[in-house]
Design brief:
The chain has about 200 residues and is α/β, with parallel strands linked by helices. It has helices at about 15-20, 35-45, 65-80, 90-100, 120-135, 155-165, 170, 185-195; strands spanning about 25-30, 50, 85, 140-145, 175-180, 200.
Length: about 200
Amino acid sequence: GGASYYSDVGSEGLTQAIIAQKGSALMILGYASGFDRSARAIGTSMRLPLILRAETTDLTPRSFIKAAFRTLYLKSLYRKFHAFNPIGTRSREHFVRIGVPNERLFQSPYCVDDSNFELSDAAHSAYRRQSRALFGADDSDKVLIFSGKLIPIKAPEMILRAVNSLPPPIKSKTIVVFLGDGSLREQLRLESNKLNVRAHFLG
């Protein structure tokens, strides 16, 4: 049971769950999905301070008109939140551009286990061989990793098509590893088979 992807998560029972937590504020991890909108409406109706922690940037190319409307919409939307947790530098720059004051910004970066980066050279080489063996890769193979959601806006199919365009001797020695999941997973698997591109899906 349950949804396979975040975008499919429904809000049934959300009010009861929020009440049960007896929290003093409500953190929301986005603003675009139905779940996000429902959470915002419920939090507002319960008079809970709202905190936004989302992957927000201004990197996506947009026409002048679209960018202007987006800015106006977000200025109005962000007025509903009491605090913001930018994940990175560009996220913080986005909030500042929209007009969020610094005193309402609280940096909240992703946490990374850096123990793998502290290996000795010998241990790193052994770990590399072990990891590559999972994909059937030998020392002469090139392994390309796509890390992200397998959804249309990320265009993960482009890496398969790029590998397919390589000269046959290079293509045959190239492996694509998808580190992530999403609605395009099965379509990508079928396309990799059709293009005869070596691909693995880790989820």
